[in-house]
Amino acid sequence: MTTIVDRDKRRITSVEVLCALLVIALVGHTWLADLLDVPALRTGATVFVAVCAQALPFLVLGVLISGAIAAFVPAKALRAVLPRNPVLAVPVAGAAGVALPGCECASVPVARRLMQQGVAPSVALAFLLAAPAVNPVVLVATAVAFPGQPEMVAARFAGSLATAITTGWLWAKFGKNSWFASKALTRLPEQDGGRWPTFAETARHDLVEAGGFLVLGGITAAVLNVAVPTSLLSAVGGNMVLGVVVLSLLAVVLALCSEADAFVAASLTTMPLLPRLVFLVVGPAVDVKLIALQVGTFGRSFALRFAPLTFAVAITCGVIAGAVFVGGA
């Protein structure tokens, strides 16, 4: 026992690593400034800081709202206002995403809880897709990221809501409960840890998880703006179909938080608005993070069917919304 305790005391934590890095930066700041005095690095650092600084306030607000919902808004409250007919309930659940915002990480367990309380899977999945994509935090962040372009906000709202409703209707028609893992539909007891501890833990968890993806997105945006030749991005942007395909796949791989992805999309200035809009519609609906969460929550059989369906619907709805609101810009 003493040996284990001693080993735990000697373990280097992330806080100690951060302190060490700060000391090195303070002591060797002159040397580091000379080492990093490269135009490309300066440009990349500027892009990275701009993306993170603009997105962070919305990210914090989003996780606070997500924590409040998890702690103070029981899932049965949504069930109480849903029509019994899934065809009618799917649009209601999609519209509820406007009033009950949350990030992708939070929407998956909420959707499972709805299913465990008797809500039809198609209805719960419509809410899962709508909540992180059409809530006010995301829409305001999109407006800030694209100043003077309200059509991007309207197009994102329309494309994302259409994705949630269409996917829900398709799942109501063709989905099967046998595709879900048994634990996904098994009723679980309510947590008794208290509302405020639940709020704090949910907000902390979402902030840590989403903050990491925000940093990844900022780094990626910086790399794209510096390392990738402008001519290459211009060539991709010149082909609308290729641009849509590339940015759709990029949205899946980056797995950005929906409160932050608009700032990354705005930084891709060499791409037309339509592919960037599709990027914003696809990202909150399907990405590698969500696929992993869905495998762990609903089972592999479900994820293998739901992810491709959502990806195809999101691209289609994003293109249609873009054609209506932003045209070929």
UniProtKB/TrEMBL annotation:
Pfam families, per the entry: ArsP_1 (PF03773)
InterPro entries to which the protein is assigned, alphabetical: DUF318, UPF0718
Bilayer-crossing regions: 12-33, 45-75, 123-146, 153-172, 210-228, 235-256, 262-282, 302-326
Topology in the lipid bilayer: Multi-pass membrane protein
Localization annotation: Cell membrane
Keywords: Cell membrane, Membrane, Transmembrane, Transmembrane helix
One term under GO cellular component: plasma membrane
Coiled-coil ranges per UniProt: none
Family: Belongs to the UPF0718 family.
Stated name of the protein: Permease
Source organism per UniProt: Labedaea rhizosphaerae
